[in-house]
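User: what does the whole thing look like in 3D?
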Amino acid sequence: MAVETRVERTLELADRVVSAPGRGRGLTWSSALAYVLLSLGAVAMVTPFIWMLLTSLKPPPEMVQFSFLPQNPTLENYVRVLQTANFGRWYLNSIIVAIISTTSVVFFDALAGYTLNKFRFPGKELIFIGMLGTLMVPTEMLIIPWYTMSVQWGWHQGLAQYWGIAFPGVITAAGIFLMRQFFDGVPNELLDAARIDGMSEFGIWWSIALPLVRPAIAALAIFNFIGNWNAYIWPLIIASGREYYTLPVGLSFFRGESTTEWEKIMTAASLASVPLLTVFLVFQRQIIKGIALTGLKG
Amino acid sequence: MRLTLHQRQVLWAYIFLAIPVLFFVVIRWYPTLLAFNISFRDWNVFEASGPWVGLEHYRQIGEELFKPRSAVRAAFWNTIRYVVYGVPSQLVLGLAIALMMNHIRRFVTLYRVAYFAPYVTSAVAVAFVWNWLYQPQTGLINQVLSALGLPNQPFTKSPQQALQSITAVAVWQNLGFAVIIFLAGLQQIPEMYYEAARIDGATPWQLFRHITLPLLNPVIVYLTVLGTISYLRMFALVQNMSPQGTGGPLKSTTTVVLEVYREGFSSYNMGFAAALTVILFLLILLITIVQLRFLSQRVEY
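Assistant: Here's the predicted 3D structure for the full assembly of 599 residues, as structure tokens:
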């Protein structure tokens, strides 16, 4: 028997954001106007991306004459950019960092959120407030201390830089808060039954509670992956050599080297943004649902 | 010794929380305190210490704020302008788009994807694409202006237009987020309120003014605070859209965080940079407290 909890209601609302059609009733003058304005807006949103891709397909001589579509489309820019810059390495670095932090975030945020929802123990309030309170402190205030600590502990050199780039985001307060809310929807009777069967506490979390919050885990994972992939200021500071740049940092330095060759810069921007845009198009429902969830306070 | 069920549970809770608690103490709380400490010192990063100078950096910042050509003064002043231009634009456009999307039946997914795509794109890539769109002669926007017989605009090349041009890009990038949050808020309003009001002969404007707007109040407050914080932290767009990443032309686009980066990691003036971050932190704290005040005022209906 399903008891409607506030969490289930929140999930349902978030679902409606992605799946419900609008509330409009047929085609009226006002809905026709809405279609026109929304389409104009959508063109303004999408044109920069299309212009980026079209520019990246133009051979250098076409850059001086103006035409919207490339006359002789070519992939030559891609070959040249991939040969001259360390793009392959930067992809690899971004993937390594995003995988380290996302795996860790999913594991620890879910474990901590579960514990803070389902267990009673002394100091629970203090720990929860202590974690949530860190949300008030902006990253920018921590970069100087983090840099000092990384230099002291050698996290700014060699392979340790991967850890140096990733460590600030391996556990997140917002994720713990989200997961704590979601475990509310897991019935305590289910967990108690498993306890009576003699299952270990870790086993109960891993094989009973965790599968029940899969949608929330997916949202958290995708969200963190995107956030880490696009992270800029901290990787910019901590990555000391170009072999350890992540994609956004590498891209930023790449501009410095080819200031006026826009076809090359647009090629580099395409290389950096197309993979994530593809991920977004594939998972758009989950991503948008995840965003909607952050705005709906259960 | 046998533990009771409750004692065993307490033990497991501590085991499960050990690593997260350690993380928050070492990677979040300790650095927060360290930031205050550094701001009172002439910090040397390689010795991880430095002579205590007390409030000297804060006094310097106060002094800079009254110097006409100071970068710090420009940074604070510009940061406020980014907030003042960016947040209302994002809210008004976001709400208008969400209301329109809620009003139609078809193509909603398509629109949602289009409006949200910039939000998942790296700010650096976004900055470069817009640098190219904004180019004086060859840029797409000026090409279109010429074709329409309108004068070319310098955009980020002119101290008068640069800040607004960068704000427009930030709004373009973050708009989709506001739209989704507004859509979620609109879904929370029960349809029966509208039906009841329509039966009483309410006009669409009255429905919006007396039902939608008041019931969206928590969402508006949430987006205002989140938006304000994000514009107070402007960095990646400005660094990648201003010449040589210095917040120009003529300091017209520099921000507090950009000055933190330049002072801390170009001039290695870390104590001074830390003092700037402490001030930023206090600003954000103030806004969060205001948010909590507003959110606790529940709307009666």
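In plain terms: The CA atoms of residues 138 and 161 of chain A lie 22 Å apart. Chain A has a mean pLDDT of 88.
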